[in-house]
Amino acid sequence: MSASFPARRLRRLRKNEKMRNLVQEVLFSTNDLICPVFVQEDLKERSFVKSMPDIVRLPLSEVTNEVQEIKDLKIPAIMLFGIPSRKDDAGTGAFVDDGIVQKAITHVRKNFGENIVIMADVCLCQYTSSGHCGILKGNTIDNDTSLETLANVALSQAKAGVDIVSPSAMMDGQVKAIRHILDENGFTDVGIMSHSAKHRSSFYNPFRDAADCAPQFGDRKTYQVPFTNPREAMREIESDIAEGVDIVMVKPALAYLDLIAETKKSHNIPVSAYSVSGEYALVKGAAQLGWINETDIMSEILYSIKRAGADMIVTYFAKKMAAHLNK
């Protein structure tokens, strides 16, 4: 036999599906998925989000049906986002006992018990007149006043029955403030999954349509991480860990796989990633034009996020991916 033939033939392990399954290195299951759920106050029927095909805002009356569908797909967790009927400068709707998210948490807990993990976003952008994630003094975000409000939001969600609060406002010290108020009030079992490295990103634009939370002036450059600064992102993660966070998050996911990998390598803590609205919209838009196969691209993206090191993924593809995995 000629010595020119390769001695190592890696394709031997790819010759049929059973062999490929046997040596598959990255495994993905429905247990890796968290499904976002938008609930809108005073809404009478489902309302589709124009910039996010197949994603809907739900009235409270439709939440049970939605969560049942999610549960039936074997997805273990939901992430609740609320859209209030009224906004004010103090973001009051985010922390009142009868707020839309608080009602949704209570509703899901009553109907599903411990059979699904209830997570809820802790932020103010949907609830403030300004559309900013914190409380304003003049035209400036007041970090420490915002911390007090965010802590009250988390406490109200804990009282309603949430499993995990998920602060996304990017205020310095938010994890410490939330952990303190939860523990002080006896909610030591409520976890915190912080949006630790939340970048200032154009990938959020469709979400702002879905949650009606675009800033009314300026931008969020003073409190979200610049996408040019990976060391700064890692310092944010380290700060949250020092403050007692239970799960850290990198957000967005696809353009920040390096940071997911670095976080997994550097820290012994569960790592989540948020595959955000812009990532979803890009795939859906191209698929609708017939340029790509939606299922194939969806799978490749989500597997890449898992391969980078994410233990769990918040994604608008959660239901579609779960249906694909369950086949």
UniProtKB/TrEMBL annotation:
<keyword id="KW-0479">Metal-binding</keyword>
<feature type="binding site">
    <location>
        <position position="123"/>
    </location>
    <ligand>
        <name>Zn(2+)</name>
    </ligand>
</feature>
<dbReference type="InterPro" id="IPR013785">
    <property type="entry name" value="Aldolase_TIM"/>
</dbReference>
<feature type="binding site">
    <location>
        <position position="220"/>
    </location>
    <ligand>
        <name>5-aminolevulinate 1</name>
    </ligand>
</feature>
<keyword id="KW-0456">Lyase</keyword>
<dbReference type="InterPro" id="IPR001731">
    <property type="entry name" value="ALAD"/>
</dbReference>
<feature type="active site" description="Schiff-base intermediate with substrate">
    <location>
        <position position="251"/>
    </location>
</feature>
<dbReference type="GO" id="GO:0006782">
    <property type="term" value="P:protoporphyrinogen IX biosynthetic process"/>
</dbReference>
<keyword id="KW-0350">Heme biosynthesis</keyword>
<dbReference type="Pfam" id="PF00490">
    <property type="entry name" value="ALAD"/>
</dbReference>
<comment type="subunit">
    <text>Homooctamer.</text>
</comment>
<feature type="binding site">
    <location>
        <position position="236"/>
    </location>
    <ligand>
        <name>Mg(2+)</name>
    </ligand>
</feature>
<keyword id="KW-0862">Zinc</keyword>
<dbReference type="InterPro" id="IPR030656">
    <property type="entry name" value="ALAD_AS"/>
</dbReference>
<protein>
    <recommendedName>
        <fullName>Delta-aminolevulinic acid dehydratase</fullName>
        <ecNumber>4.2.1.24</ecNumber>
    </recommendedName>
</protein>
<keyword id="KW-0460">Magnesium</keyword>
<feature type="binding site">
    <location>
        <position position="125"/>
    </location>
    <ligand>
        <name>Zn(2+)</name>
    </ligand>
</feature>
<feature type="binding site">
    <location>
        <position position="277"/>
    </location>
    <ligand>
        <name>5-aminolevulinate 2</name>
    </ligand>
</feature>
<dbReference type="GO" id="GO:0008270">
    <property type="term" value="F:zinc ion binding"/>
</dbReference>
<feature type="binding site">
    <location>
        <position position="316"/>
    </location>
    <ligand>
        <name>5-aminolevulinate 2</name>
    </ligand>
</feature>
<dbReference type="GO" id="GO:0005829">
    <property type="term" value="C:cytosol"/>
</dbReference>
<comment type="similarity">
    <text>Belongs to the ALAD family.</text>
</comment>
<feature type="binding site">
    <location>
        <position position="208"/>
    </location>
    <ligand>
        <name>5-aminolevulinate 1</name>
    </ligand>
</feature>
<comment type="pathway">
    <text>Porphyrin-containing compound metabolism; protoporphyrin-IX biosynthesis; coproporphyrinogen-III from 5-aminolevulinate: step 1/4.</text>
</comment>
<dbReference type="GO" id="GO:0004655">
    <property type="term" value="F:porphobilinogen synthase activity"/>
</dbReference>
<keyword id="KW-0627">Porphyrin biosynthesis</keyword>
<feature type="active site" description="Schiff-base intermediate with substrate">
    <location>
        <position position="198"/>
    </location>
</feature>
<feature type="binding site">
    <location>
        <position position="133"/>
    </location>
    <ligand>
        <name>Zn(2+)</name>
    </ligand>
</feature>
